[in-house]
Amino acid sequence: MSFKKIKTDFLISVAKIIAMFPLDAILKIGASIGYLTWLIPNKRKKIATRNIVLCFPDLSNKHQRSLVKENLISTGIGFAEMIISFWSKTDKFIHRFDFEGLEYVESALKRNKGCILLSCHIHSIELASRAINTQLNNPAFILGRQHNNKIFETHVDNARRKHCEKTIDKKDLRSVLKAFKENRFIFYIPDQNFSYHCEYIDFFKQPAATVIAPVKISQTSQAAVVPWFCFREKNKWKIQFHPPLDYFYTEDMTCSLTRMNQLFEAQIKKYPEQYLWVHRRFKNHPKGKNYLYKDL
Asked: Left if phi > 0, otherwise alpha if psi is -120 to 50, otherwise beta: which for 205?
């Protein structure tokens, strides 16, 4: 047995124990972890700082610094929410969720073409996905990438399958199209950095490698595209679904991706501290890989 497996299994065991704590206690643990990442110098803090400076240039240095602090604390809470999503019982958290616009989701399946549930990397994304699946007759599948730590990936996949039935690798287009032929929902969160099959589209006025797959898949399958977003409000969560997007079918690729990023921007600006700024969103850049992060 490798040290990597022993370490990973131990950390997962600790997470499962934490998942049995009262909800507010778990969230406080997450906030404490986030606060520590603010106090202790680390690479993720540097990345978040760089992203926030790039994307909110109009804020004063003081306000940028404050936003970084709030973001790292929220990132820690997001980590706690992930633990809750993977290993806590549903009745621990579901009463804290409010849903708005579920009629858009219900009507989307009437086309019998399936539905993409489109969102961006807000910290509560894992917990929100599980909460949404409690409201659907046929739980949505999750589209995502494989984690570099395969041992961790196995634990996560097993946890997700308890509420989403199936996870699909982002490269497995055949399974995606098959799911839509069966008129299923798929969670798709496409706003991370990509190095292939992408276009450089402005995101907070920065060129961001934006994957073209959401548009390609929707055009090929004719699946409905329903945007949704979840934000945390004082240890409660509100999930809001928006009307289906039609421009994926009627406008060209660049215009569709631009409007998608603009939609994400508008939502992120409501609660900017709750976005995944610790991710190198602008890693691939027209001026070279890691152009905006190479000095970190």
From this structure: left
- Evaluate whether residue 188 is within a structural domain: yes
- The SS3 call for residue 292 is coil
Q: Which two tokens stand for residue 189?
A: 């969160």
How remote is the C-alpha of 214 from its chain's centroid? 15
Q: Is 286 contained in some domain?
A: no
Note the pTM of the prediction, 2 decimals.
Answer: 0.95
Q: 192-211: per-residue pLDDT in tens?
A: 998 888 999 999 999 999 99
As given in the structure block, the two tokens for residue 48 are 């978040």
Choose among 148, 149, 186: nearest CA to 165: 186
Question: Whose structure tokens read 């890989």?
Answer: 289
pLDDT band for 221, please (50, 70, 90 cuts): very high
Question: What type of residue is 184?
Answer: R
Residue among 102, 237, 86 nearest 163 (CA): 86
- CA 178/CA 242 separation, integer angstroms: 25
Who's near 169: CB < 8 A, 6+ residues apart? Answer: 143, 144, 145, 146, 175
Domain that holds residue 10: 3-274
Give strand ranges (E) for the chain. 97-100, 115-118, 141-144, 167-169, 185-188, 198-203, 206-211, 224-232, 237-241
Q: Is residue 285 in some structural domain?
A: no
Cα–Cα distance for residue pair 183/87, rounded to 1 Å: 28
Please answer whether residues 99 and 230 qualify as being in contact, where contact means their C-beta atoms are separated by less than 8 angstroms.
no
Number of domains within the chain: 1
Tell me: the pLDDT tens digits for 86-133? 999 999 999 999 999 999 998 998 889 999 999 999 999 999 999 999
- Long-range Cβ pairs for the range 56-63 (8 Å, 24+): 56/204, 56/272
Q: pLDDT exceeding 70 applies to what percent of the chain?
A: 100
The answer to whether residue 203 is domain-embedded is yes
